[in-house]
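Quick one: co-fold with S-adenosylmethionine.
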Amino acid sequence: MASDTPEPLVQLADISGRGRALIASKAIFAGQILLQDTPILLYPAAPHKNLSSSFCSHCFRSLPIPNPNSATLCCPSCSNFALFCSPECHSIALASSHSQWVCKALGLLRSSNPSSELQTQANFLLGAYNLAEISPDDFNMLLSLQGEGTLDGETQMLHSFISAVMAEFPLKSFSRFSVELTAALLARDKRNAFGLMENSKECGERMVRAYGIYPRASFFNHDCLPNACRFDYIDKPGDGNNDIIIRALHDIAEGKEICLSYFPVNWKFADRQKRLLEDYGFVCECDRCIVEKTWREDDEEEDEKMALENEEEEQEFPHAYFFVRYLCPNEECGGTVAPLPPSQGTPSNIMECNVCGQLRTEEEFNRDEDEDDMVDD
Ligand SMILES: C[S@@+](CC[C@H](N)C(=O)[O-])C[C@H]1O[C@@H](n2cnc3c(N)ncnc32)[C@H](O)[C@@H]1O
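Sure, here it is.
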């Protein structure tokens, strides 16, 4: 019997020197959705001091301004520190992420006032340990992702903090936890978590509201000239608001590897290399890095400009075209733009930015791009 499920557009492959990767299982067209992935674990970033909006502690959607006459749904242990957008989110959270021992640990964490980084890591660990209790399969999936742990002082400190709380709640899954496992979990998080962004219009800069572990999207490797990018729509109504969607930037031939950029595409060579080595453990040798490593650091901006302006140079710098075509023209946005999905085989001429969310026709995009160039000149 024929199946109605469309064949997946990506398949897993092993690539020497790059580990597991996703490659195109057939020819892909610009804008096509390659993958929609649901998180096995979501946890909040440390709260931003200059951000007033609050969000649901289960699905992470923004909460409406509270009506003084309506009762607010909150966690009985965490009270106003954990609010919910609906009775469904409230009851799911009380049966999962807001279990007694997690709430006790969250309370202690708040009173110890840790740095934002430690707080975010502790939020992850609490979510991960809790996952082992409520969904062992998802926990094993988390552990199967890439990353090797290191036993540094921060790991030891986080482990002691959580072990002390766990000692009061001797749940079955806790017996397996060791400092080595804590280190392994933190490494999985560092290598694989995706940040779900705050609405950048509201806070003026790119800030993360929550992080998620997306088991299938975690297999995308990095390229500084990616051929796909990811979108999230955390405040959209309905189910799946914390799914991520990966779309093709342009046509991709069957068998080609599909890569994302792990950070904004307009980062400079030295910053990209540093981040990839420190956080992801590899030296990037993509086409763009091979060209840019020959540039002198103080000339980098000049070289990029020349490559954009001079046709002959453009052939030597194949990535000049990438910025004209796929970098959001909104100043300081740094987002990547991809066409909307094709409709009934017809490519879309509407481009969407994955950071500021702006939609533009190709003509509007080119006009904004030209205006931006005039301001720069
Ligand atoms: C999110 S995971 C991607 C999937 C991973 N290759 C695996 O086997 O599970 C990130 C890790 O993949 C590897 N990786 C990603 N992009 C790479 C690249 N361009 N060259 C070499 N290794 C890369 C690095 O080890 C990195 O820490």
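If it helps, The chain has two domains: 41-194, 214-376.
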